[in-house]
């Protein structure tokens, strides 16, 4: 990690880890016991929350994943790794997801960055809040509703009907990979815009002036200063969208006609159609592991790109 | 385009808000929304002449104020539930599904929350075996008259002398074709699949349902609709994978796409075929001459139903021929009940979509119980969808 490079924020260069508490000393045992107890008590609600909502479900899924499908479907206890061995049967769905999730996140980024840039650096102050609200407000409606609206816009009575007036007949937009990509960009845009906006908004304008004073063209100022300093926001948005896309299910179903299959769709099918819980669980575990790897890699990249500045992704 | 965009919007603002609020009260899922908007289509058609039904005598049990039913898309006259609410005070939440597998999955997982649901004939023995449906207390179903039911369609509701389910209606599984877009006359599943890869490229839909999608692919080769034989299923899979890139969608909710003109051909159940043809005459309903499926849908009550009294009350209400006849007019599937047939108008009873010629009915097969739980068919369907 290049700690030596140009670092705009030296205060934060150590990595911002939570300092470890003082080492326990035996002479202070009573006092310490008291303090440990207090710490434990204070941590208890959070720990309970994690255990109940994260650890226990994960353990249950892990147990299911080494079981067998019961004759009538569902789960039956066993200890086998056959489900994991069967993972290649969903290779296409994994492949689609691993290609379309980053592609979707990238498309989202390309649309979101100019918007965030305009909002943070160019929009008049008094409009900024209103514009931000306009971006966030549609998010209050369920994604289901908004995606359903796209079904009508892209469907035969929507854009194709308008195009028919100018002589373009029988154009099909709905249920294509393009429609899925459009739905993804639309659905996840605010999640990309907001982190980028925040990182651009905090940008020290004097750096831009300094860059111009030192003879940099607007383009090289943008690449060398603006873009570089907004990278943490970009990576946050990118990872956020990407992680959500890895589990996406609704948009491929509604705008892809159930044909552009994500691993999320495969999962839903295994639980709701094939009723093969063990195989579904094995895929779920694999998906969680893949997501964790993606997070770690994204974190590494963003730390490196932004000059060793530590970034909290979520 | 001669039609206005409003043609596709049969739902009034009040109805929409009403249904939205109903969704908010209950569990919201993609299919709830699909189904309710689908139901809106039936509303628009049927809203003309429906009044309040005669009140059947209900037992003096507390029915509560809400219950939930699991059923199929575009399958009921929404007015039925409104009238039921007006009479009993029980609001009915409608959950809509695309396959029997999905219903079974929800019931197996427990806590489905349904007090009544609509399983297809071949699933009932499995439900009974798993102990998740209630033996019906016929004393609470005074409106049901077994002697008036057509025995061809009702047998699978009764197992070892105990009645677990009573029939709603029967029907067939064929395909619907927009004859303006696909002008070549078709009469077989072979033509269906071949057209899907030729003139119907990108415009054909198949069910998101293993029984019919695999079954009708099996019919391409003349195999049994219910086949579990490995080599025959392998042939069906080969065909399905070949057709997949040419499909418009894999979905059991095909009415919206057929109505909007996005899809030109789809696998189709009788009731949807009748509704589509009624509203858009150029959409024809075709039964494959090789055969395919004939079915009966039943009403049954889950063992863990949260509101059994209301479940029984609604079931009894639906068994009233005067209520049932309006259901049949709305949904378009033929009745199993002679008392209902006596009330249906002649043009319904003469409709060849509902009552196909005997030589078309003859090769049809009822779904077999084993297909529901067979892991081979389940995995084949999953491979097809994820390919």
Topology:
The complex is a heterodimer of chains A (314) and B (387).
Chain A: H1 29-65, H2 82-85, H3 91-122, H4 125-136, H5 143-154, H6 159-165, H7 177-201, H8 205-213, H9 218-246, H10 250-255, H11 263-272, H12 277-305
Helix pairs in contact in A: 1-12, 3-7, 3-9, 3-11, 7-9, 8-9, 9-12, 11-12
Chain B: H1 13-25, H2 30-46, E1 66-71, H3 78-88, E2 91-96, H4 100-109, E3 116-117, H5 124-129, H6 151-154, E4 158-159, E5 162-163, E6 165-178, H7 189-196, E7 204-206, H8 210-220, H9 230-243, E8 247-250, H10 255-260, E9 265-269, H11 270-279, E10 283-286, E11 292-300, H12 308-318, H13 321-331, H14 338-343, H15 346-349, H16 358-361, E12 364-366, H17 369-373, H18 375-386
Parallel strand pairs in B: 1-2, 1-3, 7-8, 7-9, 11-12
Antiparallel strand pairs in B: 4-5, 6-9, 6-10, 6-11
Helix pairs in contact in B: 1-2, 8-9, 8-18, 9-18
Q: Can you tell me the residue ranges of chain A where pLDDT is under 50 for at least 5 consecutive residues?
A: 1-19
The CATH homologous superfamily of the largest domain in chain B is named: Periplasmic binding protein-like II
Count the beta strands of chain A. 0
Find the CATH topology of the largest domain in chain B. D-Maltodextrin-Binding Protein, domain 2
String of helices and strands of chain B? HHEHEHEHHEEEHEHHEHEHEEHHHHHEHH
The separation of the N and C termini of chain A measures 22 Å
| CATH topology call of one domain in chain A | MetI-like fold
Strand content of chain A: under 5%
Number of helices of chain A: 12
How do the helices and strands follow one another from N- to C-terminus of chain A?
HHHHHHHHHHHH
Bin the helical content of chain A: 55-70%
The rough form of chain B would be described as: globular
Q: How many alpha or pi helices of chain B? A: 18
CATH class of one domain in chain A: Mainly Alpha
The major pleated sheet of chain A works out as: none
Can you tell me the overall shape of chain A? globular
Task: State the helicity of chain B in percent bands.
Answer: 40-55%
**Over all CA atoms, what is the radius of gyration of chain B?**
20 Å
Main location (chain B): periplasm
Keywords (chain B): Periplasm, Signal, Transport
Protein name (chain B): Spermidine/putrescine ABC transporter substrate-binding protein
GO molecular function (chain B): polyamine binding
């Amino acid at each position: 990690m290049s700690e030596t490079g140009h670092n705009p924020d030296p205060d934060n260069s150590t990595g911002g880890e939570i300092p470890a508490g003082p080492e326990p000393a035996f002479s202070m045992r009573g006092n310490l016991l008291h303090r440990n107890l207090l710490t434990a008590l204070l941590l208890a609600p959070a720990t309970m929350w994690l255990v109940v909502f994260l650890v226990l479900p994960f353990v249950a899924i892990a147990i299911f994943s080494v079981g067998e499908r019961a004759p009538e479907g569902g789960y039956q206890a066993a200890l086998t790794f056959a489900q994991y061995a069967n993972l290649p049967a969903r290779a296409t769905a994994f492949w689609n997801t691993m290609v379309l999730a980053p592609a979707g996140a990238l498309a989202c980024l390309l649309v979101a960055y100019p918007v965030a840039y305009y909002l943070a650096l160019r929009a008049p102050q008094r409009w900024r809040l209103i514009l931000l609200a306009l971006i966030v407000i549609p998010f209050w409606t369920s994604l289901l509703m908004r995606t359903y609206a796209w079904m009508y816009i892209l469907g035969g009575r929507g854009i194709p009907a308008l195009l028919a007036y100018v002589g373009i007949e029988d154009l099909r937009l709905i249920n294509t990979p393009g429609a899925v990509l459009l739905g993804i960009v639309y659905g996840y845009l605010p999640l990309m815009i907001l982190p980028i906006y925040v990182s651009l908004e905090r940008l020290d304008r004097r750096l831009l002036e300094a860059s111009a004073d030192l003879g940099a063209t607007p383009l090289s100022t943008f690449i060398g200063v603006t873009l570089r300093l907004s990278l943490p926001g970009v990576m946050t948005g990118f990872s956020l969208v990407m992680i959500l896309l890895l589990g996406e299910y609704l948009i491929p179903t509604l705008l892809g006609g159930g044909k552009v299959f994500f691993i999320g769709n495969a999962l839903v099918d295994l639980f709701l159609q094939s009723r093969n819980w063990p195989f579904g669980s094995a895929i779920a575990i694999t998906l969680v592991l893949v997501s964790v790897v993606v997070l770690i890699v994204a974190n590494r990249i963003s730390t490196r790109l932004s000059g060793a500045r530590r970034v909290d992704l979520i | 385009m001669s039609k206005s965009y409003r043609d596709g919007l049969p739902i009034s603002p009040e109805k929409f808000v009403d249904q939205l609020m109903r969704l908010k009260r209950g569990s919201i899922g993609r299919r709830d929304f699909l189904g309710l908007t689908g139901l809106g289509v039936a509303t628009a058609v049927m809203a003309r002449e429906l009044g309040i039904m005669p009140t059947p005598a209900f037992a003096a049990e507390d029915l509560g104020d809400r219950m939930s039913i699991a059923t199929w898309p575009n399958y009921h006259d929404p007015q039925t539930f409104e009238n039921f609410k007006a009479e009993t005070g029980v609001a009915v939440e409608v959950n809509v599904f695309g396959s029997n597998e999905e219903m079974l999955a929800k019931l197996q997982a427990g806590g489905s929350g349904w007090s009544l649901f609509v399983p297809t004939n071949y699933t009932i023995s499995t439900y009974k075996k798993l102990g998740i449906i209630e033996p019906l207390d016929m004393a609470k179903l005074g409106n049901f008259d077994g002697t008036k039911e057509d025995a061809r369609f009702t047998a699978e509701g009764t197992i070892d002398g105990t009645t677990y389910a009573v029939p709603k209606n029967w029907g067939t599984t064929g395909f619907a074709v927009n004859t303006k877009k696909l002008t070549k006359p078709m009469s077989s599943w072979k033509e269906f699949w071949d057209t899907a890869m030729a003139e119907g490229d990108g415009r054909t839909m198949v069910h998101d349902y293993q029984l019919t999608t695999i079954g009708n692919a099996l019919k391409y080769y003349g195999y049994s609709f219910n086949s579990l034989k490995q080599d025959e299923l392998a042939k069906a899979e080969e065909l399905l994978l070949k057709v997949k890139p040419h499909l418009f969608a894999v979905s059991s909710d095909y009415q919206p796409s057929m109505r909007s003109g996005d899809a030109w051909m789809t696998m189709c159940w009788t009731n949807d075929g009748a509704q589509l043809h009624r509203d858009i005459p150029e959409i024809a309903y075709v039964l494959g001459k090789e055969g395919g499926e004939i079915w009966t849908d039943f009403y049954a009550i889950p063992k863990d139903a949260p509101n059994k009294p209301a479940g029984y009350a609604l079931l009894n209400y639906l068994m009233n021929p005067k209520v049932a006849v309006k259901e049949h007019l709305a949904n378009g599937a033929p009745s199993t009940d002679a008392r209902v047939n006596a009330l249906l108008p002649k043009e319904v009873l003469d409709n060849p979509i509902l009552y196909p010629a005997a030589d078309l009915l003859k090769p049809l097969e009822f779904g077999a119980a084993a297909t529901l739980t067979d892991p081979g068919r389940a995995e084949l369907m999953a491979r097809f969808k994820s390919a």
